[in-house]
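Read as amino acids, tokens; as here:

___
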Amino acid sequence: MKNKALKILLVEKQSAGDAWVKKKLGDCKELKIQLQSVSQLQDVNDALCQDSYDILLFNHTQEQSQDLDKIELWQQKAPQLPIIVVAAENNSELAVRLMRQGVQDYLVREELAPNILVRAIQFAIARQRQQFKLWQQALMKKMLDRIRNSIDLEAVLKTTATVIRRFFGSDQVLIYRSKSPELPETTVVSQSANVKFDRQAIEQFIGAVNYSSLHAILSSSTSVQAVEDTFSCSMKELQVIEPQLVRSYLILPIWLSNPDYVYDNLTVSAISSPVNSKSEPRLWGMLVAYNTDEPRLWQSWEIAFLQRLTTQVTIAIEQSQLCCKLQIANQKLQKLAILDGLTGIANRRYFDLVLDKEWQRLAREKQDFSLILCDIDYFKVYNDTYGHQQGDRCLQKVAQILQQSTRRPADLVARYGGEEFAIILPNTNAPGALFLAHKIVRYLAGKKIPHKHSQVSNFVTLSMGVTTKIPDSKQPSSTIIEAADSLLYKAKNAGRNQVAVDNWLISSEDQYQ
């Protein structure tokens, strides 16, 4: 403190003992003092908006008792600023109340020598710094707990914007996720409840900032860019119908080590920044906080605090991205686990799982369970004639026909093996299963997939086994497979291109001409 001038904001009426505190400060030879004095309480907020101070001294008089509530407002405006009250009388009750409110010291004028005032100022600053540090740590933890409460990116950004707006008392906070230098995309807006804004006007304000210049500024710095004066942009440039000035704003770049990711089927890429190494951070987007009521001075501790907070938010964003990638990878793995790689329908493994689950469920409910097994007629001949690649396309077309023939979510079409397919039909009676088999035959016939060496048709056909049972929990689910497979075998032996339904045959060709 001896090497640096101590900036003191003195709140003292001129009639208060002939500016008693100012005289005492003038007698202090141990401190270099830079004094700013205000006589009106309403001027304190203006002073705090225009400059930063090391300490606030309030020379309190008897007639100002009702003004002590202002202290709480000053503390909200500048929580890092220690406050000392200097009073005319020794009032223990008042002193205790003020200390509980956060005032660092309560001094009595008649007991106050210059050296005592010096020590009181030094001790108050030291105590306030320590308390403020602990307060910041607790607040940071509280904020991060809220931000990390979700791994969803939109929730993280929305919480971040809301926390910052409330903490800094900003009218509005916007977070931009940049897709290109020409088109910044607004993703999150947090707005004060008692302030009404024209959303278009806000976006035009951001758009009025030269984006290339702004990107150059942010790319060359990892720090907050704060502007404390009225934004010098004309209303014509802003293209706002109703006048609305931005009085102060703060722009914070958000840097990520790997900003490219996919989120909710939306691919988002960061702006290309002038970096040579892929391991260096790249500009992911920006955070803008601003006020329209009055200019404000962004305190150095606010910017430092916000930088630390944003570092943690960046980690949360990266974790969210990683989680999103893992979820996508898990979804792909799940699909690989249950889908047939060639046809895209369920594979045999998933078919067995669903069959057993539905068998047990319908056994409890005593409801009908139908199963269709079908086989492409003379498929080996088809492969020999057209080649295996064309054979694969044939399997894909048949799978698509079967899939499109079913409507209910509970129905499952699966590739049973080779050229064989299976359709699980829960809560479906025999007439319903037969109706679906007829539908498939008609649909396939309409596609007219060539099969010139088939012995039953010039086009691809199916043989089907259709069975319906009321499951018995004492019997395995394979019971219905055995029945359908037996009927499929019966349809093939009857000349193929047939539908076998339990104990009788229906000719597909005769039935559907």
Q: What stands out?
A: Residues 180-189, 193-244, 259-278, 509-513 have pLDDT under 50 and may be disordered.
